[in-house]
Design brief:
Elements lengths: L7 E3 L20 H37 L4 H26 L9 H39 L4 H4 L2 H18 L1 H6 E8 L4 E9 L2 H41 L6 H36 L10 H20 L1 H8 L1 H10 L8
Antiparallel strand pairs: 1-3, 2-3
Helix pairs in contact: 1-2, 1-9, 1-11, 2-3, 2-5, 2-9, 3-5, 3-7, 3-8, 7-8, 8-9, 8-10
Length: 344
């Protein structure tokens, strides 16, 4: 727990006061409408999707572990499922803190947990997931462009190191937030008791800006890399298909084709689900009214609650993609469910 010192100043949102919603041209949301959006997106839909998604991603990890990590693609897909599991656990936590049944006797603590304990970890793990998908797309592109060299380039040890770095770098780049923010006890004059609340150091905005811009860079760069590599994969697949018309197709080529199709669908799903978030980020940068403290804050919160739900769906959908595009995944999954013996 962070101790209060002269270098720290209390930063608490007075949640006991009702914020008046702006009503410009009737387009903005009232506080009641925002609470309804949060109830539907975070608590009801988000909670259900997150529970199902966590189970599905753990199944993914189990299946790819069963398939073995001799194939580095199984390692990277397992890493993706682990990051998606963490992302969905954060979404599940959101469904708890936004639950109207949660006792609201300490709103300052709820705000602090929502911001520091859930919000920032959710952002960081989202960047981890995006970076892993970018690496998966790059891995597949190398496999198509240099099929004879891919095993020498992407060894098991190198892939393991890359996966570790893809988890470590986003967390390391976001440490300024956890340096400048903390949760500690303070005296609440309104309640006349000591409560836990969010505190910030004197140079909070400088440190927090470093983490914000770092995460924005990761989001935009991974999104652009995935988009470019997806276009490259589509071009390579079409080129390879034309070549196959005049060549004999081997079993190895068929397997690579299926894996490429899996990666393509995962990348396209990511692009479709993340594009609205990218647009929202650009809008916030251009229009100050959409900042958290701006006049459109309720509308912003409602939009992002929907985007969080879309992200949860994206993190939960990969299992269905694997079932549709990977026969090996299906065979191992059926074997694990004891529906039939695994064919050898």
């Amino acid at each position: 727990m962070l101790a209060v010192s002269d270098n720290f100043s209390l930063t608490v949102t007075n949640t006991t006061q009702v914020t008046q919603a702006y009503t410009v041209d009737g387009l903005l949301l009232s506080d009641e409408a925002l609470r309804l959006f949060n109830l539907i997106n975070y608590v009801i839909l988000g909670g259900c999707v997150s529970v199902v998604g966590v189970v599905l991603n753990l199944v993914n990890v189990a299946v790819y572990t069963r398939l073995g990590y001799r194939d580095t693609s199984n390692m990277t897909l397992s890493a993706l499922s682990l990051s998606d599991t963490g992302l969905l656990l954060m979404m599940l936590a959101y469904s708890l803190v936004y639950n109207p049944l949660l006792p609201a006797d300490n709103p300052e603590l709820i705000y602090a947990v929502r911001n520091l304990g859930i919000g920032w970890p959710h952002v960081i793990i989202s960047r981890v997931s995006g970076c892993i998908k970018a690496f998966i797309a790059l891995e597949r592109f190398i496999a198509i462009a240099h099929p004879l060299k891919v095993k020498a380039i992407l060894t098991q040890s190198r892939t393991l190191i890359v996966c570790f770095l893809l988890f470590a770098v986003p967390f390391a780049g976001s440490t300024p937030v956890f340096v400048c923010l903390g949760i500690t006890s303070h005296f609440n004059s309104a309640l006349n008791i000591s409560t836990l609340a969010l505190v910030a150091c004197s140079n909070r905005y400088q440190l927090e800006s470093v983490a914000i811009y770092f995460n924005m860079f990761l989001q935009l760069s991974s999104f652009l890399l995935i988009s470019v590599l997806t276009v490259g994969l589509v071009h390579a697949v079409l080129k390879t298909s034309r070549w196959r018309k005049t060549s004999v197709t081997s079993g190895r080529t068929t397997r690579d084709q299926r894996l490429t199709r899996t990666v393509l669908v995962v990348c396209l799903s990511h692009i479709a689900c993340v594009t609205p978030n990218i647009v929202g980020t650009v809008v916030i940068l251009v229009l100050r009214e959409y900042l958290v403290s701006g006049m459109y804050t309720n509308l912003l919160d409602a939009i992002y609650s929907s985007l969080f739900l879309l992200g949860a769906v994206n993190s939960s959908a990969n299992t269905f993609i694997y079932i549709k595009t990977s026969s090996k995944f299906v065979k191992v999954l059926i074997s694990m469910l004891s529906l039939q013996k695994e064919t050898k």
